[in-house]
Structures are given as C-alpha cells and as structure tokens.
Amino acid sequence: MNQTLKHSKQREALMELLGSVTYHPSAEWLYNELKKDYPKLSLATVYRNLGVLCECGDAIRLDVGDGTIRYDAQTADHNHFFCTCCHGLSDIGGDETDGIDRLLEEKYGVSIDSHSFIFYGRCRDCCRKAREGEK
Question: At CA 124, angle to CA 84 and CA 68, rounded to 5?
C-alpha cells in the first residue's frame, strides 16, 4: 500500500481482501465480506477507500458497461475479458498486446503511460452451455 496514506485498518483490510481474490469484485461484495470483521463499516467508507486506493495507484476501477463497477488490485498493464452472458470478468492474455503501445506511439507521435483492454464475448463455460443447448 502507498506509504503516503494515513494508516487505516479498514483500508488495509480492504486492500488485503482485494489483493487476495482472482476475480474483480464490486464494492458491494467487498463491503459484505469486510462487514463480518468490521460490523460498524459502512458502504460509503468502502467506496471512499476504493477511491483513495485507485487515486494513489494501488487499485484500478473497471467499468465494463453492465452497471456494476469492479475493482482490481493488479495495477500493471493487463487485459480483461467480460462475458456478456454470465457477466464474469477475468484477466486474459497480455503477450498478444505487448508492443502495441510502442507501435501507437510511433504512428501517432504520442507518449502512452498505460493501457487497458477489455474484450467482450462469451466465456468458455457459456460457449459450452450454448453448444450443449443446441444438441
């Protein structure tokens, strides 16, 4: 966690929980999990702390357009896949898009600090279920 932040047990617990999951939880999910250990915790506090974590670069905010904002503790450039059937959001690939920053910088004369790709489609499970439904 960024050392310039004022110490907060709740923020520390939030960051620990966010960093321990492999999917991309919503603020509501994080709140419900943390509420078990912090009964006085409010949803507003979770949102405020997520905002602070995102602002200082310890987390990223993901809006895939389904009405639910998700969060990720992995802040290095990486890609995501959003299943339009089950609304699952997962990390995907990375090697496939390596170097695109450099190509775009050369082509357009810009300087790219980071990127985020979200691919949309059906996940493996939803594809399988659709195939089984066709039989």
Answer: 30
- Whole-model pTM over 0.90: no
In the chain, list all ranges with CATH 1.10.10.10: 1-75
Query: What CATH code would you report for 1-75?
Result: 1.10.10.10
Among the residue ranges 2-11, 16-25, 34-43, 67-76, the one predicted with the least confidence is 2-11
Whole-angstrom Cα distance, residue 16 to residue 56?
16
Read off the tokens for 108. Answer: 């357009």
Bridge partners of residue 4, in order along the sequence: none
Q: Which fold has domain 76-135?
A: Dna Ligase; domain 1 (3.30.1490)
The neighbouring-strand residues paired with 119 are 81
